[in-house]
Amino acid sequence: MAGEVLSLHRYPVKSMLGEDLAALELDTHGVVGDRALALTDPDTGRVATAKQPRHWRRLLTCASAGVGDDVRVTLPDGRTVDAGQAAGPLAELLGRPVVVAQQRADGAVVERPDPEDVLAHGLDADVDAPTLEIAQGAPGGRFVDHSPVHLITTATLDALGVEALRYRPNVVVATPPGTEPFVENGWLGRRLTLGDVVLVPTLPTPRCSVPTLEHGALPRAPHALRGPADRNRVEVDGFGVLPCAGLYARVERTGTLRVGDPLDVT
């Protein structure tokens, strides 16, 4: 056994804080209800994400919870609104018009400035922000960054001194004492069995500006990027050599994933 599931997380609205759960349902598209909704810019059609902190970092002061037609958004002032009615309050918060999207369009893109440029020049600096197509490794219409599921280990989190919340995983695996940090790198090309579910890793998870930002009451944390940049720059197929922590995976066998489920790597 390579570890066991320590915690499970779902983020109903992209780039908002999410919810901690005792169990997750996984279908072939990933975690049911995860990144099911997103905000889009009505002028450009681009998906709003705190990867572009200049425009969208205040999304991380909001929280989302629920699934299907029952997704709710909690605003920084404590108000809770139905996600479908949240565009007005969120536009006021962000200072920009937004649309609540319920289905990812084919070829949907986000702005992704180089996170090291953002650290060097500041959150409001007008740095180059190339667009990146999201969900390149995911079927269906969810607004995931790449593949359907994101997993990270306590070995990696503890070595970096970073809260799991900042990296926004679906699954945190508690690994045995002595496990090397970035053990996830060695799981590529293998199969991960977690209780009823089987995942197949697809890519190491590149780290962007998001982990460095304020998350609710958590302050900024530049070390959440600098740690992977110093200790784990790896080749990410199709994207180049990037600072990474954790891994992306696709779902090979669907089912219910529960806290406490053992992890076997084969």
From TrEMBL:
It comes from the Bacteria. GO terms for molecular function: catalytic activity; molybdenum ion binding; pyridoxal phosphate binding. Residues 125-266 form the MOSC domain. It holds the Pfam family MOSC. This is MOSC domain-containing protein.
